[in-house]
Amino acid sequence: MSAYAALSQAGYRAYTRDKTTLFFTFAFPLIFLVVFGLIFSGQEVEQSGRPYISYIAPGVLSWGLGNAAVFGVGFVLMQWRRDDILRLIRMTPTPTSAVLASRYVLALGIGAVQAVLFVAVAMLPPFGLELSSGWPYAFLMLVVGVTAFLALGVIVGSFTRTPEAVAAVANCVMLPMAFLSGSFFPLDAMPGWMQAISRVLPLRYLNDGVSASLTGSGTTGDILLSCAVLAGFAVVFTAVALKTFRWSDRT
Prior knowledge:
By secondary structure, the chain is an all-alpha fold. Helices cover about 75% and strands about 0% of the residues. The chain has helices spanning about 1-15, 20-40, 55-80, 85-90, 95-120, 135-160, 165-180, 190-200, 200-215, 220-245. Helix 2 runs parallel beside helix 5 (about 95-120), helix 5 (about 95-120) packs across helix 6 and helix 6 (about 135-160) packs parallel to helix 10 (about 220-245). It is elongated. The chain starts with a helix and ends in a 7-residue tail after the last helix. This is Transport permease protein. It is a multi-pass membrane protein. One of its GO terms (molecular function) is ABC-type transporter activity.
């Protein structure tokens, strides 16, 4: 527990001192919200009759949460391994679980603040997002979603050796997934084959669960189903992450 607490405190201090990263972690999803929200302001999706903001806000929020988790842990693990920090940690009685758990708690905290700020902006008059009574379920989706994408980020960080490689791999994973999962464009308006592909992508289920929670686009059963499928992805990604985790580039 002492090792976990020390790593958590060190991670928090390092994150809050990096003002540029701190700013863009929260600003990046908001930029997409503002751009798409203003472009489609007052418009409805023809296939469903629902306003675009009810698709755009949950989708961009889900992508932002996943993106922050993947990039955050991916960069940190790569840098710690490259600078031999992980090797030094390994020389102490610190288990792998303490290292990953410290990053997990930090990612959850960042995700919670990110979600609250994002929803508050989305509810402003220019965008007009209206919350449903099931909005608290969004926090359940946040926890499961951050778990899945943090594990994915550990995999990315374990296979990359430079910041450029982390950015390239993470972007190749997250950007196509965002478009294919309906984060930037409603799945209802996409071709059938794209909707079929989305069913094997974890971001699809985070989008669906957050959307059902915030806008009432689905039932409680739909939310729990999305949560269960996303939890399945989290289990698979975590197993792969633990298998591929490396303490040093020398091994």
